[in-house]
C-alpha cells in the first residue's frame, strides 16, 4: 500500500509532463497599449441671431456676414482636428408666453465659418446649416461659425417679442 501511494504522485507528474509538451517551449513578450486623448471641445454661443424690428407682412433676412446681427459661436479644440457641425434649427420663433409662431427659414448658404484664415465679412467657407458638415479646426485651435436666416411674418402677425433656440452641436469625428 505504501508503494502505491509513493508511485501515485510520480505517475501524475509524469502524465502532466507528457500531456503538456507545449509548455516547455513558451516565451512571452510585453507591449503597452497607449492613447492620446484630444483636448475637450468647447463651444460658446457668442452672439444671438437678431432680426430687430419686423413689420407684419414684410419678410426680413439677416445675412451671415451682418456683424452685430448674425448669430455667432466660438469653438475651441485640438488644432487641425476634424469636427462635425450639426445645427438644430427652429421652424418658428415663438411669441414669449404664447403659442403664436413666426416662421423662420435657413437656406443652404446661411452659415459660414472662419478657421483663423477668414473673417465674418470674408469667411473661410460657407456651411449648409440644414445638414451636418465636417471641417478642420484651424491651426490656432479655434473656429468661429456665423448664421443668418429669414423670418416670414404674416400680415396679421401678433405683435411682441419672439424667440427660439438655434443649437450648434460639435464633436470630434475621429478622422
Q: How many helices does DSSP assign?
A: 1
Looking at the structure, the CATH topology is: Immunoglobulin-like
What characteristic shape results from the CA principal axes? elongated
- Give the biggest beta sheet: 5 strands, antiparallel
What is the strand arrangement across the widest sheet? Answer: 1-3-10-7-8
What proportion strand? Answer: 25-35%
Question: What report would you give on this structure?
Answer:
The protein has 175 residues and is mostly beta strands. The protein has one domain: Immunoglobulin-like. It contains one helix and 13 strands, in the order αβββββββββββββ. Strands 1-3-10-7-8 form a five-stranded antiparallel beta sheet, with no helix packed on it. The protein has a five-stranded antiparallel beta sheet with strand order 2-11-6-5-12, with no helix packed on it. A hairpin with a 5-residue loop joins β5 and β6. The model has no long low-confidence stretch (mean pLDDT 90).
Write the layout of secondary structure elements.
Blueprint: H1 2-19, E1 42-47, E2 60-62, E3 71-76, E4 82-88, E5 92-95, E6 101-105, E7 111-114, E8 125-127, E9 133-136, E10 142-147, E11 149-152, E12 162-163, E13 167-172
Antiparallel strand pairs: 1-3, 2-11, 3-10, 4-9, 4-13, 5-6, 5-12, 6-11, 7-8, 7-10
Concise structural overview:
This protein has 175 residues and is mainly beta.
